[in-house]
Amino acid sequence: MTATTAPRTVGTAGHGDDGGGELTGTGALLRLFLRLSRRQVVVWALALLLLVASSVVALEETYPDAAALQARAALLGNPAAVMMTGPAFALENYTFGAMVANELALWVLLPAAIMSVLLAVRHTRAEEESGRLEMLRALPVGRYAPAVAALLTVTIANAVVGVAVGGALVGTGMATADSLAFGLATALTGLVFGALAAVAAQLTEHARAASGLGLGAIAVAFLVRGVGDVLDREGSWLSWLSPFAWAQQTRLYVDLRWWPLAVSAAVTLVLLVVAASFARRRDLGAGLRPTRPGPAEAAHSLLAPTGLTRRLVSGTFLAWAVALFFFAVAFGTLANSLEDMIADIPAVGEWVDLDLENLTRSFAALMLSFLAVGPAALAVSGVLQLRGEERAGRLEGVLVSGSTRAAVLGRWVAVVLVEAAAVQAVLGLGVGLGVAAATGEAGWVAEMLLGSLAYLPAVLLFGSVAVALYGVVPRVASLAWALVVWAAVVVFLGELLGLPAWARDVSPLAQTPLVPDASPAVAPLVVMSVLAAALTLLGVVGLRRRDVGAA
Amino acid sequence: MSQTAIRTRDLTKSFGSTRALDGFSLTVPAGEVTGFLGPNGSGKSTTIRILLGMLRADSGTAEVLGRDPWRDAVAVHRRLAYVPGDTSLWPQLTGGEAIDVLTRHERGTAHRRRRAELLERFELDPTKKTRTYSKGNRQKVALVAALSRDVDLYLFDEPTSGLDPLMEAVFTEEVRRLRDAGRTVLLSSHILAEVEKLCDTVTIIRAGRDVESGTLAELRHLTRSTVTATTTADPARVAAAPGVHDLAVDGDRLRFDVDDPAVPQLLPVLGELGVQNLTITPPSLEDLFLRHYGDELERDGAEVRR
User: Fold this and answer.
1) Domain at B273, CATH number
2) Which residues contact B47 (CB under 8 A, 6 or more apart)?
3) Overall number of domains in chain B
4) Which is the most buried residue in A266, B100, B201, B297, by most CB within 10 A?
5) Same domain, B177 and B261
6) A521: domain range?
7) Between A303, A312, A400, which is nearest B77 by CB?
8) Contact B74 A303 (CB under 8 A)
9) Is residue A298 part of a domain?
């Protein structure tokens, strides 16, 4: 399966009459990939359809007239709000359409980007890593057929999502041309990140690492667009480095322009060419760098009771800790534009106390609640990784080596939750450092670090829900993600959509007081801690009673 | 140690609507190598995973080394080693690290020495990341980990899948050494030659039930030898002899099966016919196997029997 040195092109004569070019079998593979991923695509598309349609309806109720819209616009000068929305093109004359474009678009683009990364990796590197690609390539299929089929799958998925988004907007009575542009922008943004993931899939041998790179790129793009828009409310040069900006700069529902979408399309093509050129240089199954030999014997640290778990989960946690730390610092430094904001928009005084220190504190508290979604997701993903171990048949080996089920699960959960807690503390430190750098007051570091610890019970609760599901009903353990998604919706969109209190209260993050702004209420923290302990125990009991290998 | 290492009675286990085990009984005498034969999907792995305490039987009893494997899993695991049929390893670990993780509780120089010896015998490079291993190499990791342990009972679930013939031979030697050292081995397989070479007793499983068990000699007794010969005389007398089945005549060549107990009466008949080029082939395990599964195979349209 070595790469041929002589260049081979589609349709070259001299290969005899094998009836096939480099793309033979693409159609069949495409059907296979679509069969494998159709459910995910439908779920993503329906979820976005629902999100968009229900958001538009909810917003219409919450902001019925120009006065309400203008009051809303007054809140958006806050750098935290800028990070979480988009370039605002009509703040002086805030229309309903401008609001939808400004405040909803990012939350439609992000899921499309995440879906594309996951799908692209799933049908490229994950297939290759598992060895299934080798089996497919042994069939009469062309060299590029699997990759092309994978990209077509991502393209079709994005088309479906784009149609769902555009359809939801048109269906709820938004302007047709702008709504179609919104749908197209969603699809193209997804494709950019899908193509980026295709490049990542060439660089690393592991699907997990490729997904991590892709998701990291999304986070960087998110941050770059946000910081760029903080510099200039309608988008600065920095914003334009982010694929999200290309979609958001179409000035939807304000002054529609299509050409920024051409940037998305062009960058997608460039990325695909890069991925193809990498692909040509390597063997099947390999990364760009060859693997080096490792130790012939396990170190003592690996053989310690928690050694294996640490080895298996810590890499992911470390990578995310570093990424989220920079994210937190960047968010924190946005505090320096708070002063300008007070000067710019006097109306903000109606919203909060005009005291700069208080403003900074409430801003930082908001940042903490945004960022806590990260450790919550890490806790769930870390716990569910054990389910992957069980499905792969590796849990049996660990059990036969002489550990009880309770010990294996207990150690695993302990490592995951301790590391998730550490990431939470790192986030607090990051926000604190950022705010301290922006304000020149070192006291923020300790205050934010302490404040971030208030989220620990909530983070533990997310993890323990996953533990309980894994132990008792492993088949549906991934439902634990639903709680994370809900918490993210509440924290990012809850206010905008005017979600009712009971719906927000389902999220453990919403149960956490907005420290250090609000006074730390101890009762919910204690309740969540007790609940987390109980759910973990339930998970342990469940695992002890069920068949192993049934996950 | 009790005289019986493993004893199961009437095990049943269902997965949804699939009945994997349907009243399965198995006895593995201590200090012997017991073969566990059956085609794919007949319930071998389910049985072994019940013996490991991974699965709980719906009904029936299982006893491993005198204990209930579900309740006392850890105590049982300390005294047994296990090789699965398809070993999955942590891709980011090296083979050597994986072996040490799988034998985490083993200490002492004897174990280290044995580990080094096995690595050499199986020609396994322990510094390679396990994701670069072929199936055979992954299997070797599990074999080295299991064989390096000094325990009472070894459970092998189709252990040689993916191994080349040279490595299979190494495995065979290692199992012989275990037998010589008085250890108990349960070897599940569908490779008959392997079982025939190694096993003292055999249990055959089919569709979740034990259909035959005993020593190889006992089992052979139940079956037929194959006779071929050439003769110019009329073979009608052979056909009429007791215990003769499936006589096929091709010119002067005869071929038929005969019940083993009937062989002594048959020999004078053959002598009177003046046969030449006589061969009497004792039944191989394969014949045994085909006798139990032949109808199934034929139903599937496979041409196995003449």
Assistant:
1) 3.30.70
2) B8, B11, B21, B24, B26, B36, B205
3) 2
4) B100
5) no
6) 304-551
7) A400
8) no
9) no
Chains A and B form CB pairs within 8 A to the count of: 109
Please judge whether A547 and B105 are an interchain contact, meaning their C-beta atoms are less than 8 angstroms apart.
Answer: no
Phi, psi (deg, nearest 5) at residue B41: 80, 10
Residue A299 lies inside a defined structural domain of this protein: no
Write out the two tokens for A239.
């914003």
Residue A1 lies in a domain: no
Instruction: Decide which of B215, B245, B263 is a domain's last residue.
Output: B215
Nearest to A549 among B49, B87, B129 (CB): B49
Looking at the structure, tell me whether residues B204 and B64 fall in a common domain: yes
CB-CB under 8 Å, B84 with A401: no
Whole-number Å distance between alpha carbons of A114 and B152: 52
- Let me know the angle formed at the C-alpha of A125 by A123 and A131, rounded to the nearest 5 degrees: 90
Mean pLDDT per 10-residue interval, chain B, length 306 residues: 84 92 93 89 91 94 94 93 91 92 89 94 93 90 95 93 90 94 92 82 88 79 79 82 85 85 85 85 71 58 38
Q: How large is the ipTM? A: 0.81
Chain B CB contacts of A551 under 8 Å are none
- Digit-coded pLDDT (tens) for A409-448: 999 999 999 999 999 999 999 999 999 988 888 899 999 9
Helices of type H across A91-175:
96-123, 125-130, 132-138, 145-171
Cα→Cα distances A129→A64, A125, A247, A314, A437, Å: 53, 6, 33, 21, 44
Q: Which of B53, B84, B102 sits opposite A401 (nearest CB)?
A: B102
Give yes or no: residues A339 and A417 share one domain: yes
**8 Å CB contact of A396 and B80:** no
B198 and B252 housed in the same domain = no
Closest chain A CA to residue B85: A393
- This prediction's pTM: 0.80
A127 in the same domain as A209: yes
Q: Which residues of A touch B88 (CB under 8 A)?
A: 392-394
CB contact under 8 Å between B54 and A311, yes or no, is no
CB contact under 8 A, A401 and B86: no
- Do B90 and A394 lie within an 8 Å CB cutoff? yes
- B50 with B162, same domain: the answer is yes
Ramachandran angles phi, psi of A95, nearest 5°? -95, 165
Residues A231 and A341 in one domain: no
